[in-house]
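Example 4.3 (complexes with small molecules)
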Amino acid sequence: MTQTLSPNHELAAQLRDSRLKAGLKHWIGGQWVDAQSGQTFEAHSPVDNSLLTTVASGDAADIDRAARAAHDAFQTWKAVSGAERRKILHRIADLIEKRAQEIAVLESVDTGQAIRFMKSAATRGAENFRFYADRAPGAQDGQSLPAPGFINYTLRQPIGPVGVITPWNTPFMLSTWKIAPALAAGCTVVHKPAEWSPVTATLLAEIMDEAGLPKGVHNLVHGFGESAGKALTEHPLIHAIAFVGETTTGSHIMRQGAETLKRVHFELGGKNPVVVFDDADLDKALDAVVFMIYSLNGERCTSSSRVLVQEGIYDEFTARIAERARNIRVGDPLDPETEVGPLVHPRHFDKVMGYFGKAREEGATIAAGGQRVGDSGNYVSPTLFTGARNDMAIAQEEIFGPVLTAIPFTDEAEALALANGVRYGLAGYLWTNDLTRAHRFAQGLEAGMIWVNSENVRHLPTPFGGVKSSGIGRDGGDYSFEFYMETKNIAVSLGTHKTARLGVGQAAPIAKETAEG
Ligand code: NAD
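Answer. The structure with nicotinamide-adenine-dinucleotide bound is encoded below.
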């Protein structure tokens, strides 16, 4: 394990003292407040599982207060011009960039993610705000749909206060991905971050306030999913829930939101295949496969956690992955050299470790890793399972750690059947130099996002989301506005159509257009 000290450690120590010692509060209606119950919970750092801070533990009473604040602020915020919203969102982006190092260090300390990735994650958060800042002035734009005797036009209006519920894997970046389009659309927000990673949500609230976002437009309630999260999904003043997390939690949220008919957008789990044909550029494919499973500790929804390799190149290709996996630097996430940090929480560490035993029981081979690193902490070695079958738990279940399952295939038809033979369908990666096969295969792959001859490279206007058990709906570009806004149609008569006359003593024909709805 690498243990080099860096200036990041000094900054982390200083921030722990100045920012975290006093504990984290909710941010409701423009005020930092304790939980109404006075309850708190502890957040620990996965670096050494030491106490990081105490956090206000929200419940239905805090959510109610935040939902009311968001409801009150909605009347003001929806009336603010797109141009003004654009300015405020750009100011938020400026402040994120200014404080990117602080955000990155706190994110590493809170989640165990390596600092080398967290700096760019913070910067991506700023890009998300800039992207939607520039779209705010056009968010309401609609269509003109002329008909005989009528002008029809559509416009979009913000849906109202929305709930944003985020997970712990890259919490800062993910929350900006939801909150920025919601604010650009004119919605107000109640954010419930994951209980295992509460720190940077607090920073984001602070930044938005400093940027001049009106009080109550963004509210933050910390707490557990079963209490604060559940209350948010059930609150009648909250019109929609944008949720990122596990598939089973998505099912809970759908049930909880049924009574109040919540609109939901779900970004859920994945077991994403990367399919490597023998005609591919294997050096590039190797880099991409290794990056997409071992970066971000493998705690990444779009990680390529199943590698399907054509049989003629299977042994050599998997041997090369194993060699890379053994060379990956596991260690202190604040060390700039570290590639894989500790897993977020001892419970998650136990879950990932459990799959090493399962792989052995199922008869797979552990070609690399498969053990803890060091005597304490949540560190696991980057792992490769070979000799796996698609029906094994290690091929079907989302492990959400630096753990890759390799399966051989003979031809395109088998590759497609294996790739699609899971309940998930978030992302798929395909490596081949056969252009026709690439298109054919991509069309057959059951996934919301497919990259051909590439790792995950996001372009912000493109749709992001999954099929099957990986999600409902799409984010990104204009797709986010479809979720955060209602489309309204306005039909204006040009005065030339005839209205059917009732009560005039004779049967008149009713035009079919007026008989609908
Ligand atoms: P999780 O579902 O356990 O928790 C996510 C959030 O939901 C947390 O804030 C939690 O407090 C809250 N929550 C839990 N129960 C709730 C309930 N009953 N009602 C309301 N809220 C509730 O997920 P996690 O373990 O934090 O995150 C890991 C999961 O997130 C993985 O499955 C991963 O694939 C997924 N993820 C998906 C994407 C994507 O874009 N598809 C991105 C990142 C992570």
